[in-house]
Design goal:
With 467 residues, the protein is α/β, with parallel strands linked by helices. The longest helix has 18 residues. It binds flavin-adenine dinucleotide (FAD).
Length: 467
């Protein structure tokens, strides 16, 4: 319908101002009445945070639709022999200000991660398993000082100030590797920096990931906490005492206690959402129920799948959503041994060719044998068992202890755009349609995939449009 992007955005802008909505950077003239009814699709960090901040601002007429049978999304805590293990979100840092605000408000305990854990690495080609050496530490620190020096400069500082990825300087659209090379990073320091802090945690391959994402993830305050903790200067990293899933469950329980009108529909099968043109009404069709009408819709679920239920997206919007990439990332809870090091990475030469081999492991309870292994696969349809087979073969080859597999998870992880899409202003276009047909988007794609950045984005969106 709209052949040219500029025309499309202009049309949307005029529509949104007519409908009383606005661009993310332009605050609406007046917040909607506190009586409006709001549907939130998705009960992960983004959706639950949005519900909390909406309720805090006086909006009480909210329904959360969650497709699965549990809250938390990628925060997924399981119990094995009465001990809790994280199959998804693990930790946080001093810089996690919104997560701290939420956990304090709902009395959810955080505990420090002890910094005296043994940290090993394995060379993927050699299979050697050895504690991180002083030499490695030196290289990581060189990477760190290069990094912190660059973070003080302007293109980065504007990213730090913004929520999401609007108005990205071109320099930050290139791949992280190119960006680091351009900024004369010590290549060995860079290698170690990435090996320890990016790829093992599911954030992909730095020669393809735009610099903006990694810089957003490792904002100065987070990076400083991370390094202080890793080098033993100060313990600034935490985990949730009863697991991250419990944080989101506790928030919902707390909100419902304060306000019995908040509804959460678990295992909800939303088959269709109809947004009335030129009208504020949004109809949500859920299997087994009468269609329900809302004034606003907040999408807090994987955006790339929303065209399956919302069939009135424009061509340009569909084009944007088709460009979303993810990584197939896996986590497995496996019995190893109490003598097995508590955490480590498999860093050297880890690239697409090394798919399915483990990339990281973490043993939450040093006195218990269960270890969580993490891995990638190139094809998102790779079954978890196929990845597990490769990890098992590695275990046999290198004589690692490897026993019962308790839990297997496959994640569609870290939704992101390619460098060329960022250069093309994809986020400016996405942000410009916040509020179009009374619909808003939150979650990993908009803010980067950590619980803090996701929750911070939801808070900012609510305080921009609903305050
Ligand atoms: C293995 C792993 C380790 C991680 N470790 C950390 C860490 O240590 N620290 C950190 O900060 N972050 C970590 N993360 C990242 C963090 O967990 C995520 O970025 C964050 O939880 C994403 O929240 P979200 O609400 O945007 O998305 P999600 O958690 O994906 O939530 C989306 C929700 O929407 C639901 N949904 C989907 N489709 C529909 C539909 N049609 N209708 C209704 N509901 C729907 C889903 O079931 C899900 O509950 C980790 C993630 C993984 C997978």
């Amino acid at each position: 319908m709209f052949h040219r992007r500029r025309e499309f955005i202009k049309a949307l802008m005029s529509y949104t101002s007519l409908a009383g909505c606005s661009h993310m950077s332009r605050k609406p003239q007046a917040a909607p009445s506190r009586r409006v009814r709001i549907a939130i699709l998705g009960g992960g960090a983004a959706g639950v945070s949005a519900a909390h901040f909406l309720q805090k601002n006086g909006y009480k007429n909210i329904v959360i639709y969650e497709a699965s049978n549990r809250l938390g999304g990628k925060s997924n805590t399981v119990h094995i022999s009465q001990a809790n293990y994280e199959m998804g979100t693990v930790g946080g840092a001093k810089s996690y200000r919104v997560i701290k605000e939420l956990s304090d408000h709902y009395n959810v305990s955080r505990i420090q991660i002890p910094s005296n854990r043994t940290f090993h690495y394995i060379d993927n080609l050699e299979g050697a398993n050895s504690p991180a050496s002083r030499r490695d530490l030196f290289d990581v620190l060189t990477g760190y000082s290069d990094y912190v020096g660059d973070l003080k400069k302007e293109p980065y500082r504007s990213l730090e100030r913004s929520h999401g990825f609007q108005n990205l300087p071109k320099e930050l659209c290139m791949s992280f590797s190119k960006w680091a090379e351009k900024n004369n990073w010590n290549p060995k320091g860079l290698q170690y920096f990435l090996n320890y802090t990016v790829t093992p945690y599911g954030y992909g391959y730095p020669d393809e990931i735009p610099a903006a994402y990694i810089l957003k993830y490792f904002e100065r305050s987070f990076f400083t906490s991370f390094m202080k903790h890793a080098t033993g200067i100060r313990k600034e990293l935490f985990i949730m005492k009863n697991g991250y899933q419990n944080l989101w469950e506790s928030i919902i329980a707390g909100l419902q206690k304060e306000n019995s009108t908040l509804e959460v529909r678990m295992s909800a099968k939303v088959s269709k959402i109809l947004r009335m043109q030129g009208d504020k009404h949004i109809q949500v069709v859920e299997e087994g129920r009468q269609p329900e009408v809302f004034d606003f819709l907040i999408l807090a679920c994987p955006h790339q799948h929303t065209p399956k239920i919302i069939n009135d997206f424009g061509q340009e919007e569909l084009r944007i959503l088709n460009k979303v990439n993810t990584y197939a990332y896996y986590s497995f809870a496996v019995d190893t041994s109490v003598d097995w090091p508590t955490q480590g990475v498999f860093p050297i030469n880890y690239n697409r060719a090394r798919e399915k081999h483990p990339v990281f492991w973490y043993r939450r309870w040093p006195k218990l044998p269960v270890t969580i292994f993490y891995a990638y696969a190139n094809d998102p349809n790779t079954p978890a068992d196929e990845v597990l087979k490769v990890i098992k073969a590695d275990a046999k080859k290198y004589k690692w202890p490897f026993g019962k597999v308790h839990v297997k998870r496959q994640w569609e992880y870290f939704p992101h755009f390619k460098t060329s899409d960022l250069e093309d202003g994809v986020y400016d276009r996405l942000e410009s349609i916040q509020g179009y047909k009374n619909t808003y988007r939150v979650g990993e794609l908009m803010s980067f995939a950590t619980v803090e950045l996701v929750s911070r984005y939801s808070k900012n969106l609510v305080n921009t449009f609903f305050k």
